[in-house]
Specification:
Chain B: It is an enzyme of class 2 (transferase). The complex is a heterodimer. Chain A is an alpha/beta fold. Helix content of chain A is 40%, strand content 20%. The radius of gyration of chain B is 18 Å and the shape is globular. The chains are: A alpha/beta, B alpha/beta.
Amino acid sequence: MKKYIDQGKNDTRSGYGAGMTELGRTNPNVVALCADLVGSLKIQTFIDENPERFFQVGIAEANMMGIAAGLTIGGKIPFTGTFANFSTGRVYDQIRQSIAYSDKNVKICASHAGLTLGEDGATHQILEDIGLMKMLPGMTVINPCDYNQTKAATIAIAEHHGPVYLRFGRPKVANFTPVDQKFEIGKALMLNEGTDVTIVATGHLVWEALIAAETLENQGISAEVINIHTIKPLDDEAILKSVKKTGCIVTAEEHNYLGGLGESVARVLSTQHPTPQEFVATNDTFGESGTPEQLMEKYGLNNKAIVEAVLSVLKRK
Amino acid sequence: MTDREMKLKSVYLRKSLLKYIYKAKAGHTGGSLSCTDILNVLYNRVLNVDPKNFKNPDRDRYIQSKGHCVEALFVTLANRGFFPESDLETLCQYQSHYIGHPTKKVNGVEQNTGALGHGLPICVGEAIAAKLDNKTHRVFTLLGDGELPEGSNWEAFLSAYHYKLDNLYAILDYNKQQITGSNEEVMNTGSVRDKLETFGWSVKEVDGHDLKELEAALNNGPFETGKPNFIVAHTVKGKGVSYMEGNIKWHHGVPSQEEYELAQSELTEAEAEI
């Protein structure tokens, strides 16, 4: 299979920060807001270079969403920044009424998503945010896989008119996508062509899917790996084309199986091409404290879990 | 427009909003009557808005945070020429744009509102955007007193002070009643003036049914340079219809035919006395 090289571990939130730095230099309408998490969101360079276009709102996330909606009426492109938990659940009413229903061009940028936030535990480890956001009419939902892709996605969403939820994380992970790869919203990326099984992964699970595919190859199983960075709108065509070839599928995400990528894929398959599917996702649970590796192992969100899911789904073909 | 014509217009707007609420068999009657004079002054003496070119980027902004009192807003916009008043024959009906809360599908409406505690934060964003672009237009919102306990309002009070938004005007329709009872019974806010002054706003109190007082306050800002403006407009829920005034039943009540006719005749009498 095609080899992917880790160019050096880095965090996806730094990819966001780098994307914001570039937008600060190229798009005068971009403004940034933050609820007291400038360091966590890695946007200090944007602030240093564009102090007049940064608005600290303090720990007041509901107000941040309202202010962002108001800034769009003045023609600005606001990027809000806080943890994924406080970017979604805490402010769902503000997003639903004042942003999504009102078709506001707000970019909701959410760090520390999922279990890989680690030691801070369940209060901060949201595993329901993809579901919350994808249910909102008109909302685009993006979960990039590494530093390079998060940077590219940050830049791309400024050019897209409409509300966007951009989800990324805290830990340093493999950075393997090409540095100059253009980010196309809603367009899945084929990472490895295979014939026996399709693995569709998003976010941190994409790298794990590639490791799983190598393991499977050593067992004589040819896995097709697709990077679904955009969960809504979903690239139905890419998924259908792949399963028509492989006949079974595993979805992998750092999210509850309820409401996540897997359910979106299942909807496409059940209505257009019924296919055996296994879910690599959390099983309707909250998280806990631990290192990202310990938690991903315990909750079944790593390459080993993907291999097991593949072996299981192959039996159902 | 003369002061007398302004007074006549307030009566007309009350008669009109009652007419459409009666026809739709739905609406927020008491609260719409309490803010009618505020809306009349805003749209006919204060706001720089053009019904033929509403999207002018230099327009003054108005967002009605108490979105449920949409009937007062719709009749005021129609009267100001944003759309034909006859459009309101479809108020709250299937497939009508004139739904039970403000929507941008209606010419003149700046923002979809209805969930309480949303208007002020959005206005903070608009006021920041105006300052950022060195624009001189003003940003107004109308708050209901029942929505004051929403935490997002207090977050916005802080941020408007922090960003020195003296181009922002928050008007409180202070009729002191809400759906369940009096503000004091439901959630006692104590002295709104004291709280807002403590939060760093410049506060004026006016009779919310005195058109001259309202105009003087709304057109003579900022009250203090560098401070956001808060106008406590003392009003009466159900204002203008004797049996509705101060009676909580009319928060969401729709008059019967007999009640409707009595309301219209009272308003016609009031008109004759102007």
